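Q: What residues go here?
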């Protein structure tokens, strides 16, 4: 339970600090460049999936996908997941564990969050086409919180498999070579 409290404190603390200073953070280097890169990458990946896998009929302008007769999805900086990337990095930097694992686990988490974001945009595209009346609800109450479910799941994996405490548990069970009998 202690670990969940630490996770919650870091996550909620970061959320409120990010909101309080977002105008300062978003206007300083390198966040705008990272955000522009992730918006472009998210847009291209989601568009490719929508067209090539789901065979959607889409026209585009800049980072906006227009769906015939039902609306559009515009991908902007708030869609980029930069906040979630930063939140993941801060969580992992502050949470205990060996750096030899953090050095690969943090980038792996960012990739998973990017894939989650592609899933979010593609899912919202499907909702827009099939159930347009539920788009706002899906955006605000399903797909946005889903990020935090993924972050929590990655953190649980970290605590169970890679943190110092879990690594210590596995070393307690090492066979010393003694036999009984």
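A:
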């Amino acid at each position: 339970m202690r670990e969940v409290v630490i996770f919650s404190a870091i996550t909620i603390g970061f959320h409120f600090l990010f909101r309080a200073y977002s105008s300062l953070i978003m206007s300083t280097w390198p966040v705008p460049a990272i955000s522009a890169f992730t918006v472009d990458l998210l847009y291209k990946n989601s568009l490719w999936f929508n067209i090539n896998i789901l065979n959607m009929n889409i026209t585009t302008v800049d980072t906006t996908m227009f769906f015939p007769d039902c609306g559009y999805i515009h991908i902007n900086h708030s869609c980029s997941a930069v906040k979630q990337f930063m939140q993941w990095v801060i969580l992992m930097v502050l949470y205990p564990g060996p750096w030899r694992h953090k050095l690969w686990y943090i980038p792996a988490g960012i990739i998973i969050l990017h894939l989650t974001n592609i899933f979010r945009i593609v899912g919202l595209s499907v909702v827009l086409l099939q159930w347009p009346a539920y788009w706002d609800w899906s955006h605000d109450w399903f797909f946005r919180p889903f990020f935090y479910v993924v972050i929590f799941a990655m953190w649980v994996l970290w605590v169970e498999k890679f943190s110092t405490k879990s690594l210590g548990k596995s070393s307690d069970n090492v066979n010393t070579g003694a036999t009984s009998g």
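A: Context that may help when evaluating the design: Residues 170-181 have pLDDT under 50 and may be disordered. The beta strands are 59-61, 64-67, 71-74.
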